[in-house]
Prior knowledge:
This protein is α/β, with parallel strands linked by helices. The chain has a domain at 349-476: Isoleucyl-tRNA Synthetase, Domain 1 (Orthogonal Bundle). The chain has 18 helices and 15 strands. A six-stranded parallel beta sheet has the order 3-2-1-11-12-7, sandwiched between helices. Strands 5-4-6-8 form a four-stranded antiparallel beta sheet. A three-stranded mixed beta sheet has the order 14-13-15, with no helix packed on it. Helix 2 packs across helix 3 (71-88) and helix 5 packs antiparallel against helix 6 (194-206). The radius of gyration is 26 Å and the shape is elongated. The mean pLDDT is 95. Bound molecules: 5'-O-[(L-methionyl)-sulphamoyl]adenosine (MSP). 5'-O-[(L-methionyl)-sulphamoyl]adenosine is lined by residues 12-15, 18, 23-24, 26-27, 54, 241-242, 244, 268-269, 271-272, 300-301, 308.
Amino acid sequence: xxxxxxxxxxxxxxxxxxxxxxxxxxxxxxxxxxxxxxxxxxxxxxxxxxxxxxxxxxxxxxxxxxxxxxxxxxxxxxxxxxxxxxxxxxxxxxxxxxxxxxxxxxxxxxxxxxxxxxxxxxxxxxxxxxxxxxxxxxxxxxxxxxxxxxxxxxxxxxxxxxxxxxxxxxxxxxxxxxxxxxxxxxxxxxxxxxxxxxxxxxxxxxxxxxxxxxxxxxxxxxxxxxxxxxxxxxxxxxxxxxxxxxxxxxxxxxxxxxxxxxxxxxxxxxxxxxxxxxxxxxxxxxxxxxxxxxxxxxxxxxxxxxxxxxxxxxxxxxxxxxxxxxxxxxxxxxxxxxxxxxxxxxxxxxxxxxxxxxxxxxxxxxxxxxxxxxxxxxxxxxxxxxxxxxxxxxxxxxxxxxxxxxxxxxxxxxxxxxxxxxxxxxxxxxxxxxxxxxxxxxxxxxxxxxxxxxxxxxxxxxxxxxxxxxxxxxxxxxxxxxxxxxxxxxxxxx
Length: 494
Ligand code: MSP
């Protein structure tokens, strides 16, 4: 951390054929918490947080056609929904990229041309032409093996894949597999958690990974970026999409690119690990660029064991949660439900009870009680600086650096509970009634201790709940401390 000079963090760019849901929200919330944490540590100007939308390809074109809207209008509309959702959740990204941005499209074409000229370490052309054939699932936007089908259908989309055969351009992945494996093993490219790293190494060991195509015929996929040297072809949507992480920085000459590449943290769920751990490093190696430092892979959330999707009608809209709980509480409820990396069912039915217990009765009540007692018994005056619980705060920093968001929140809520118990045990309301000098002194010490605890809690909450944390710190730093006129968290009605 001491020598960390800059921090570049990315989320996947989300497909606009789907509405933003709680799965997309999870990755984006995690990125937001980390970005806020590092901004405090190394300065706002040294952190870059990128998110955006992936807008080309057969899948999007199909969705637009189904909606009876021109694809550009369609992507404008859905991309806007993502931006509004992130605004509602108070996500402080530095850039929102769209793959239909002119600048992105132009740089992708430059990248493709560079790849076309590049040679592999074995001296072969990186890009070559060949016949492509196989079963293609439009939902996954990828070719799928016969053996992966369940009763002839794509296991994720429950749809029959199409038989495709066409003349395409290919990327010679084969020539990069060994280097990639070695970089993953040596942790030059870290993959977290270990289980995912081993998964990738397992894939690499098989050695029969096919090359991947970087283009599709215009006939089969008309909605995309033109391949600069072959007018019959469009860029394959994954090459277009993965490039966003450098086109956003104005690769190759942009100042942002010089400053921020390589990425320090690329977040995603395991569904797109293969693209990021194999294709993406191979493309970067072919461009002679450093690889991202770390890929961080979280679990895939299901609803009653099923994938969330519009088709299945089980999508949880984060905007609805924000309406009920507010942005910061929604983020808290989502992050505290399970550990990063765990695969699990999302249980929004548990949110109301948790909101009342942890936020209304836990943190909110503590703030009310402590500030009320300082106001009533000490005339609002605490003449000391809060004592920093350095060990506790450092411990939380380590949790954040190692993506243990849930653990960090549990520790903060332990401290909240501890403080509430401390109030109950010391009963300042009784001390305040006593005439004894030692009781008056004890009252002061008890309230000073609580003041310090609250201060540390607010500090710890900064990356998770920037506004609430600020509210608490503002109350504590006022000349005269007063109980807030409104509770920090409104009790849920009924
Ligand atoms: N467009 C590609 C990514 C290109 S990145 C160069 C894509 N888009 S997506 O809309 O399907 O988003 C996938 C990502 O969204 C996952 O990797 C994850 O970050 C997040 N999630 C989407 N659904 C999710 C769950 N049900 N659970 C957890 N995360 C989920 O793939």
